[in-house]
């Protein structure tokens, strides 16, 4: 496993992280024993960056991490998020960027995680009712107080990133980025490089499309969030599976899995991917991507197979897209 600095002066983290949304029942049911085994497998394979959020399973992901890793807290860098709560219509609850909310949310997360600090604390979604400067200000105060090591932003525009960074330096920016989601390359990736902000890629395997787990709608459980995602519906799904199959052929030629190929591509681009999984074997295999050395020509072929905008369907439904900061 290789390692890199988080932000400009943060801790060293593994170049492959672990996205802990899969430890909560977002993609269908979760067996706690399997979830715990998967989390421990990732750490034992050299992963030192664990990413969760207070809304994953209404705190269940944080709670599991706290119970399983309390005695191993010094072995990994811990990130969590606040500010992603939605109402029944999928609209963000207003006021989650206000200082008083931020402080309450952090205290609640620390309690579930059984720790006195988190290394990285993200604003999960931009609060349209609170200026980003106000949220960045309180997050900066929490850094100075030692309750968080640094702060990050998730699914914000380059403009919002710059505004926040001017108040207090941003450590990391997280957004969806994969061969099927190339939009960040236009402005966000360059802005992060300019400011010294680590770009963290969630859903780097296309929410399972590039990991081989999903080939038909029937592969998704009844409670799976992806059933409402346009990329997993009808002809869109067929088109995207076809793209994944072509990448699988390229990966097989390199004697690696499709997931390992995609993760290595992201790492080569200076991005920190945080794949999630519910299987210990997948966690170990994903970690192996952190030590792969593939030729640049392989990555060029990947980009030929899946050029920008090749994916069929939007990255989320209308309600999901409405909560993203794209201005």
Automatic annotation (TrEMBL):
The keyword Oxidoreductase applies. Residues 16-305 form the NADP-dependent oxidoreductase domain. Keywords: Oxidoreductase. Gene3D superfamilies: NADP-dependent oxidoreductase domain. InterPro entries: AKR, Aldo-Keto_reductase, NAD(P)_OxRdtase_dom_sf, NADP_OxRdtase_dom. It holds the Pfam family Aldo_ket_red. One of its GO terms (molecular function) is oxidoreductase activity. GO terms for cellular component: cytoplasm. This is Aldo/keto reductase.
